[in-house]
Amino acid sequence: MRTYYQHRYRHVFHAAVAFTFLLTTLIYLPGLGSGLYLDDFYNLHLLTQVREQGVLAFVGSGVSGPFGRPLSYLSFALQAGSWPGNLPAFKLVNLLLHLGNGALIFLLCRALAPHIGLSQPGRDLFCLFATALWLVHPLHLSTVLYIVQRMTQLSAACIFLGVLGYLAGRRALAAGRIRHGFVVMTLAVGAGTGAAVLCKENGVLLPLLILVLDLTLLHAQRAPPGYRLWRLLCLSLPAAVMGAWLLWQAWASQHAFDWRPYSMYQKSLTEASVLLTYLWNLLIPRPAAYGLFHDDFPVARTLVEPLWTLPAVIAILVLIGVAVYWRRRQPMVAFSVLWFFTGHLLESTHLNLEIYFEHRNYLPSAGLLMLLPWALLRLGSRLPASGPLVGAFCLYLALVVVVSVQNSLLWRQPLQFAQEMVRTHPDSRWALAQLGSNYIGAGDLGQADALFREMAERHPTAILPWLRLASISGCLRTEPVAAEVWEQLEMLAAAGDGGGFDVLAELDTQVSVLAQGGCGGLDTARLEQVVEGMAGNPHLVREHPALLHLAGTLHLLRGDLAGALQRGRLAKQASPNLARHWQYIELLLSLGQPEAAGEIAQFRVALARKPVAWLAYRDKLAAAEARLAARNRNHEPKP
């Protein structure tokens, strides 16, 4: 009879796990119909060239991060046939990755369960509840439905696999298979970190996250004599290197904030409030709390402005301090808290990144969301009946599901989604720009015109609304752009602010359409003057090389070859990277300039030091050299 009930229990448990994954799928399905957001287009627009240039060329063209994130770009390249007409196909792959990561979290919970002080039934419920809570949480909608955050998902998957591999190695050590255990752990840390970094730079956190696990939940587990040396070399040393690099960045990168409206110090202070907001939104689900556009988050100017800054900093320090102090007495609490903050070490500290993005919680939340079901089950084990507590958690989980469903349905309707984002974030430039783009996409140019004028009033230093107004008139209505719009653009060009990828994307679109004979209402000379002014704008330092390149293209459209060559040369000097150098080479070749040969030789030398980028440029380089050789043969004197 006991065996019968055990089998029945296992069947029910497995059915509950399967239902969790099915429920997650149903929650996300409506949102798969959403569109492109923020830097989606910037990262993916070259997918149109995959058919001609091949998958490897796109993989090597990665523009994100210092390493180019080739594994993430490979995943996008394999879907090139779906770009740009079938965006749900990209989001479906993201959903499948999310489900796969949920399975990895379930396995991770199973591996950690013997170390958290629960009975066998309690361990099963812990694995089920922790996995379900992470899978259906509304905070992760913006990771799954924001296409390019597949990078975050893939990096997290590699980290989860690395942690699972490490735990398998620890089990081998405990079973007496010493050599096997050390080999498995070393491979897990090395391969997991390497693969995760090639997806997104957060992968470097894997050794630190394993160190957190080792010093908390696994601190009492016996290990062979060589383990401390292994931990020193494979975990502690990388952690020390990471800490040294972060300190060096704090000293060496302060000038990198010159173009932002806040300093490194102010960004660091603000992140304390941001982290507490993340915690609150993880624990207390509310429909209006989640979304893509949080660029309106209040920046901390000092420790007491806003007033909650100092309490937030103290709260973060207390949480970390208590977790470290309790790491032996309450290892599960310490693990959850330290995993969360370690997972935010790169993106939510002093590094020169945007202040607030929900997808940064995708990995850190895994540890934190394990804490709730664990605490519930630990408390329930001390009570005569745990049923009411389990029921309460199920109600909480149902609330999380309801909020996720509401938000997923909202994502399905891009115009309503943008309107809701503007309602909840009225000072967000990103939200206003997205709503305006949606009005244009819906053909409602009147609403778009009014929206961008409203945006210009709310943000008088913003360049984007006036660029969009120029585009509405000159490109979409093909009528002359109003003098007021040109005057505002010329005034803001030298001192206004750009506000992210949108300004460059808008200018690039206008210049491209002009080159194809469109945008009949745009005055090329005046647009060139605006772009030239923006190229000298101290608030647009990051965009300086791209603006010079666009200015060169406008000079070329007007027949000013000398001006085009000068701007191309300045763009290459301002940003001495392969992409900018190649743009200059293409310009030289198109104009038949003799210095193209020397630039190609320099480019080949630079390319030899970057094997991933070589994939993107090998065919282009061969074609350019063949073109140059053919031109030289045509100019050879005949005998």
Rounded to the nearest angstrom, the distance between the terminal CA atoms is 103 Å
- Main sheet attributes: strand count, strand direction, barrel closure: none
**What's the helical proportion of residues?**
55-70%
Structural Rg = 27 Å
Estimate the global geometry from the Cα principal axes.
Answer: globular
Approximately how much beta-strand content do the residues carry? under 5%
Q: How confident overall, as mean pLDDT?
A: 89
Class per helix and strand makeup = mainly alpha
Order of helices and strands: HHHHHHHHHHHHHHHHHHHHHHHHHHHHH
Number of continuous helical runs:
29
Number of strands: 0
* Unreliable residue stretches: none
Describe this structure in words.
The structure is a single chain. This protein has 639 residues and is mostly helical. It is 69% helix and 0% strand. The protein has 29 helices and no strands. α18 (414-424) runs antiparallel to α19 (429-441) and α23 runs parallel beside α25.
